[in-house]
């Protein structure tokens, strides 16, 4: 490299510029695993983390969706087909990621399912399926990742919670139970892991506009109108709003935040 010396102008020379301060919002050099990262909120979390400098591995059950997502996200994104409910596969999943891409710094437990049905009509099988996906599988993957993170004395684990864990929403008994369980899990895991340098937090999305939510709300205009009436900002959020919050909580800007649940909801959780 050829360095050009500054031209003398007869005045005293200025001191050389100091190194730029560390950008505490940067995720450069970090590797994130995002479950359910092929579409919706998970995809936007991946996109926002990439913009912040991270590399990402997204997982899900539908390979074509994941392929399209990675083609859109670019060269620092990769995918693995995985069903988080198959808990016996999770150790191998994390081993494959770390062998191929390096140590995981961030886990985003985004994959989840919902069902809208009156509580008295929900079968045991339906209830179990939702709790297994949204809570049991999340704990299993978190345990695998946390074991490695704690050995390295660093890491961030993010749970995706819901307004359903904050107040009663009709016809989502199993989903609400699973998300309330996540909220309790965050507090316990934060108390156990944080001393070893692993922070655990949750993001609780409000009413976020995705293709799935748009269809659901259009099919239930009364529910849509009630949601907006109690949202002080008077509008739906966008998936990137959750992505930006995830970047913040995963970054050094949030280095003293653990065991918290951050509502990203336009004020819905405090609306009347």
Automatic annotation (TrEMBL):
Residues 30-206 form the Ketoreductase domain. It comes from the Bacteria. This is SDR family oxidoreductase. Residues 1-21 are annotated as: Disordered. The lineage of its organism: Bacteria, Pseudomonadati, Bacteroidota, Cytophagia, Cytophagales. Pfam families: adh_short_C2 (PF13561). Residues 1-11 have a biased composition (Polar residues). InterPro entries: KR_dom (IPR057326), NAD(P)-bd_dom_sf (IPR036291), Sc_DH/Rdtase_CS (IPR020904), SDR_fam (IPR002347). Belongs to the short-chain dehydrogenases/reductases (SDR) family.
